Amino acid sequence: QQVSGQPAALARPSDHLRHEGEFAGNTTTGEFFKAADGQPAALAKPQDSLRHEGQFQGNTTTAEYYQQVNGQPAALVRPQDSLRTEGEFAGNTTTAEYYQQVNGQRASLARPQDSLRHEGQF
Fold first, then answer.
1. Measuring CA to CA, which residue among 104, 100, 103, 84 is closest to residue 92?
2. What pLDDT sits at residue 1?
3. Model pTM score
């Protein structure tokens, strides 16, 4: 029964999930993947299969074929001009004929009129 002004009594439900027996704590993943104390793998240096046979000659084919020669600079030759004018040269162009310079008159300077005027006493 509940009395007004008093908090209701808390009823704790009974726990129906109970462990039976001892808890081992082992899982299948933990059983298969255990950390093992092992020896590190032995380091093996690979054998070199490239061996020099005979004496080494430091000459290359490029150095043999292309040797540096101190020579004279090439002679400067002015090329022949293939564009030659034939006949008389007329220096008139269509632009000069149609658009000739005209001296015009300069516009006169006009001072703008002031639209703000004082009225009355100042």
1. 100
2. 58
3. 0.18
